[in-house]
Amino acid sequence: MNIQKMLSAARGELPCDLVIKNSRIANVFSLDYEQADVAIYDGTIVGVGKGYKGLMEVDAEGAVLAPGFIEGHCHIESTMLTPAGFAEMVLPCGTTTVVADPHEIANTCGMKGLEYMYLESRDLPIDIYFAAPSCVPASPFETPKEPLDALAIKNSYEEGWCKSLGEVMNYPGVIHGEESVWGKILVSWNEVRSGHAPGVTGKDLCAYLLSGCASDHESSTCKEGVEKLRRGMWLMIRQGATEHNLQELLPIIKENEARSSHAMFVSDDLTANHIETCGHLDQKVRLAIEAGLSPLTALRMVTLSPAQYFRLWDRGAIAPGYKADMVLLDSLENCQPIHVWKNGEFVVRNSALLNVPFPRRHSYPLASRALHIPSLEEIRVKSSLSSQIRVLGLKAGQVVTDHRIETPTVHKGQIVADANRDLAKIVVVDKNSGSNRFFVGFVMGLGIKEGAIASSVAHDAHNYIAAGMDDISIRYALNELSYLGGGLLAVRGQKTIADLPLPVGGLMSDGSARDVINGLNEVEKGALSLGTKLPHPFMAMSFLSLSVIPELKITDQGYVDLNRGGAMSLFAEDK
To answer: What is the pLDDT of residues 317-371, one digit of tens each?
Structure first.
């Protein structure tokens, strides 16, 4: 950086590298539009005003010039794309910076997974900052490949792989001072610490906030969101592929748009299909404006707000001294990117991704394979003197579940799945630690009428999970997962209807975005043929094993309900 030349360019004495003329600048400081030219030198905005000359000049023709969009919380692995594939999809949507939590691959591959994600993202035309996974495992009831303790978190900072602490999901551990959880918090004391506190309010919320974990994307009601804002938390309003909280929470911001200075829109979990069909942060801006939020306020929540929360002081606005990460839009209401610049260089022109490099690493970590797939006899559940069983109640569009108590369907002394009741059998098998452990339960809400679906994407430990209407289909699906080394499957009996291999950590494909989209379309079509009407059945199923989300969940260790004390038996009368 040549300071003297930049100063000369700012004063208009030296031609700039790029000048964007005749734009309507969306000013996220003053929340108004400004008619001005923007001058860029050496990747930095050096001037906003009139009279600048550039070696390259672009006539914006009155279009809206906005800061590049910033994703404040997502898991790239959920797209089933590597960081390079993910970047190729979101850059044309106007996203230029991403804060990602790689705790998915950290669960399946440990520290090697973190290193891979960092190296894969290092030379991309987008900035990806990784948060150190705070919860591997997410709770004592989940089984990762290897636990990541405070020393591992500290090492991830020292290696330069991670820049903040990822969502601290073990909220009971935070609230009650669990030593292992607080060790990770304390080694991150100088870093931004992200929170995860579904349903935590009142005095428990006060205790949680002593950790400095000052953001939350799990609010599901306005009452909860407002309380967290009032206690100093940054409100992350989530709108993912299956988790839709924007419409529910947006009244918090509409009621008082000044709250946008402490709030942002985030994705959490997306699929490649969702990005192709709906977009990324651009979609959230459109949805918010359609729901009545002021356009510039919506823009602030995907630019300046996340930049300030994550201490990315050099981006998030169009002003002197800021990175020249910018997107030219037809309007904020339509939010359709025309051009995108990263560090002052064209990366998207006329809505088309330019031939910029997206290097991929040819070596990647593989997930472990299950050492033991339970037999048909082991999958069977004998009936009991107990008249009732616990059943997971899936809620469409939500990651939370119900803790249901149901009378089982019994056939020849066995508790069985029942399509007429939308009651499926569900099995989770440990593939990570070699324990040979598995657990069999039941779920309502998947809508399967026959066969089974299975996946190695099962938050957060990502062991094998399969749900279906007969034991032969379930066991066959689990065997096929092990053969593939991870993936998604729809099966009927001992026949695979469709599959999508995910060899990178058992979570991601080494193919192109198009390969993943086509593959996911096929397995979702296969699941539809089995009777489900859920738009994303595999993603919905993947959250059934996330033990830190209320209420009842299932892992290889058994049923879990942290709100009721932890481990739960299948039979309701048992503890």
So the answer is: 999 999 999 999 999 999 999 999 999 999 999 999 998 888 887 789 999 999 8
**CATH (domain of 321):** 3.20.20.140
Q: Is residue 417 included in any domain, yes or no?
A: yes
What 3-state class would DSSP assign to 382?
strand
The residues, ordered by sequence, that sit 6+ positions from 406 with a Cβ below 8 Å of its Cβ are: 388, 389, 390, 391, 423, 442, 444
Let me know if residue 307 belongs to a domain. Answer: yes
- End-to-end Cα separation, the chain, in angstroms: 65
Residue in the block written with tokens 């551990």: 173
Q: What share of the chain is helix, strand, coil (3-state, %, to 5)?
A: 30, 30, 40
Q: Do 112 and 250 reside in the same domain of the chain?
A: yes
How many degrees, rounded to 5, is the angle at CA 269 between CA 263 and CA 273? 120
Sheet holding 381-382, edge to edge: 381-382, 414-416, 409-411
What domain range is 131 assigned to?
67-353
Q: Are residues 389 and 301 in the same domain?
A: no
Q: How far does CA 401 lie from the centroid of its chain?
A: 18
Tens-place pLDDT, residues 37-82 = 999 999 999 999 999 999 999 999 999 999 999 999 999 999 999 9
Residue 269 tokens, joined:
């979990």
